[in-house]
Structures are given as C-alpha cells and as structure tokens.
Amino acid sequence: MSVPPKITFTTFHNIINNELANTATTRHAICPSNEEPLGEVPVSAKGDVDRADERADYLNKFADAIEANNDELTELLGKEVGKPPQAAGFELSLVIGLARETPKLRLKEEKPIDDADRTAIVRYVPLGVGVGIVPWNFPLTLGIGKLLPALLAGNTFIWKPSPYSPYTALKLAELGAKVFPPGVFQALSGDESLGPLLTAHPDVAKISFTGSVETGKKVMSACAGTLKRVTLELGGNDAAIVCDDVDIDSVAFLSFVHCGQICMNIKRIFVHENIYDQFLAAMVATTKQFKTGDHNDPEAFFCPIQNRMQYEKLQKFYSQIGEEGWKTALGGEPGPKEGKGFYMPPTIIDNPPDDSSIVVDEPFGPIVPVLKWTDDADVIKRANASKLGLGASVWSKDVAHAQRLAEQLQAGSIWVNTHFELAPNVPFGGHKESGLGMDWGEVGLKGWCNPQAYWVKHSS
C-alpha cells in the first residue's frame, strides 16, 4: 500500500502541470488574530492562466493525502482564516467527508425511449476546463466542493483562492500534484485582477463562484461574452422561524458560528410573541457563555473577523445601532480598537423594524436581529420578503406544522428543527439573488457537464 504524500507548509507556490511555479510578483495575506503577515504567495498574470489545462481522477488517493496532512492543514487554516482549533477542525472534517463521499456519486445515462425501432439516451458530457473562485470564509470546504465533482465528471480544474486566504488552497493543490496527472488540478493565487482573466479566458468552460451578490453579478456578466456555464452561490439572509412550543439554545450557536461569517448562518430570528421574552433571555445567556479567542485558543468560539476589509464594513454596520436607535439585548457598538486582531462584539438586536438594514441586509458578522411574530401567514410573508433565498428553517415540536410552514419558504435549502445541515450527496445553493445552480450531490455533479441527447436508429 502506497504511503500518502506529505509536504512542507512554509513556502507557497502556484501549482501548474504538477510543478511548483513562482511568479515575478508576490503578495501576502494577514492573520486576523494578530494582524501579522503570513507567507508570500504568487500573483498570477495572463500567462499563468494560459498554462493551466488537462485532466484525471484519483480522488480516493487524494482523500488519503488530505488525511495524512490533516494536522498541518488545520493549523494553517486557523492562521489564515482566524478559526480556533475546534472550528478549523470542523472544517477539515467537512473537507474529508466531501473527499470520501463525492467519489461515490455516479451520473447515470437515462433512456427515455428504448424500443425495437430506436433508442434515445440522455448522457452527461464533461465541459472541459472548470474554474472555482473560492471565498475566504470556508476556503477549503467551498473549494473542494467544486473541485471534486468537476474532476469526477471528467473536467480539469483551476482553483482560484481568495487573496485573503490563499494558503491552504495552494497546499491542497501541492498535494494534488503528487496524486493527479499533470494539469488535472491546478491552483493560481493572485490579487483581485486574476478573477477577470479567468472569466474572460476563451478556454475556460465554466466558472463556479461563491461570494457576494454584487460580485456574482459581475462574474455572470463577464461570462456572458463567451457563454460560459456558471454556478453562483451568493449571499444569504437566512430566516429561522421559532414557534411557541420550543426553546432552543442551538439557534444562538447557528447564528454566531464562525462569528456570523457563513452565508448559511441564521441571520434573522423570528420568535413567536408568546415565548419572545423567554427566548431572548435564554439566547443572551447562551451567547455570553461563548468565549472569544484566536486561532490558538482551543476553548474559543468567537474568532476575529477574517480581514480588515470586512472588519471595516462591520464597523460601519454597527454604527447604525446608535444612528437608527436599535435596542440591543447584548453587545452594541464597539469602542476604539485595542490591541491586535479584528474582533467585533457579539450583538443581538431586540425586535428592530422589518425595514431596518439589520433585517434587510446581510452583515456577515456576529450581529443578529430577533423579531416577534404572531400569525403563520404573516411570518412566512416576512421571511420571504428578502431578495435573498439561500436557506431558512422552522423550529417546532409539532413537526407536521413546521413542515407546512417550511415548504412555503423561498430558499434553496429548508430545514425543520435544524439549520446549516449539509451532506456531500445533497445539493445546496440559492434561490432569488442568492445564486444560480447548486453545488454538491448529483445535481452539482451534473452542473459540471453538458447534457446530451443521443439518438440511435436501429433500422434504416
């Protein structure tokens, strides 16, 4: 039995045709826990994009390689994203789950017509070169959820990590270079100028992008010139509807996990007025128990905001608390920044107006509104009022009632008595402005193919 490869985690390169490739210019990202610079990474230009092409498929060996380097990847992920050890370990468990389960998926040919005279087959043909443009918040999970189906479907893949979190992606591609034939899996690090080079490149057949709605619209527009296939997983403003027969501590956890920096966090909590005060008090008490710490703190739950750009956006967002007169049940506007690290106070807003920005917009940080509701039809209308439709959940001991409510929610993923539940064989993606198409599962696998109608006449 072959030994899975190990690599060093101190230097970083592009991976092109299974070789470590440097560029004339380099850059570095910042550790959000202490604002210290991380290692130098490449800044790719047009010539680097042109070199990235080819294919193969040894996904189980790749999963072995990830597991063999699990500890180093976990530590590096904590540094670049700011995740405490438990949170970084959780992401690596998702990655390994995807790496083990995705290869089990299969695309089956369908035969809508099959008689003595003729056969009609629907089959799925790989697109060619696929590109994954991956965000900074869950950089490994969201990237590998694009990579593995693309390769399994028979494509080659170029991984473009966020400039804020390029390190683990480059190391994953370095591992891939020891497993896959040349050109199958490549990674290009760069600044904000790299994405447009990929979306415009004539040899790229598909872009799978995860990020903001605003940038997603730009990606879709850029791909229109060459009619590239596009999958977009964009922002979320997930609603949770809590009925009056439950009191659930896990709602607080699912609002604040990774400091609210997940598209599928609960972003709006609608609580029935009969238990509103009780629920709010319990949520505040639960949230106060969560410790804040950096990527080295094994007891930390709240972590720093991943980058200065997002930290400054949140500073402006929090300033509305005083400007708009929002009532806080916990937290509030941060004082002057002290020490190192991009930390924001966990904040719960008590029953703000439905038209306030804390309800309408996605803050992408540790701040969440709790709102009262009374009538089923009214709360469904309010939950669906958002332009976004990534996920939504209903919480009740009466599961049948909760299901009736959940099935009226306009979102790509709906849950009853849970939220942010995912599996490698179940697709996820958004409705409305939360995206186009889905990743993961058979649906995601088909997204890396062109469906083809194939007719055979048995007699002339």
UniProtKB/TrEMBL annotation:
Listed EC numbers: 1.2.1.3
Family named by the database record: Belongs to the aldehyde dehydrogenase family.
EC class (word): oxidoreductase
GO MF annotation, one: aldehyde dehydrogenase (NAD+) activity
Keyword Oxidoreductase attributed: yes
Catalysed conversion reaction: an aldehyde + NAD(+) + H2O = a carboxylate + NADH + 2 H(+)
A Pfam cross-reference name: Aldedh
List of catalytic residues: E233
InterPro entries per the UniProt record, alphabetical: Ald_DH/histidinol_DH (IPR016161), Ald_DH_C (IPR016163), Ald_DH_CS_CYS (IPR016160), Ald_DH_CS_GLU (IPR029510), Ald_DH_N (IPR016162), Aldehyde_DH_dom (IPR015590), LUC3-like (IPR044086)
Organism: Neoarthrinium moseri
Assigned keywords, A-Z: Oxidoreductase
Listed PANTHER family: ALDEHYDE DEHYDROGENASE-RELATED (PTHR11699)
Positions of the Aldehyde dehydrogenase domain: 52-452
CDD domains found in the cross-reference section: ALDH_AldA-AAD23400
Record protein name field: aldehyde dehydrogenase (NAD(+))
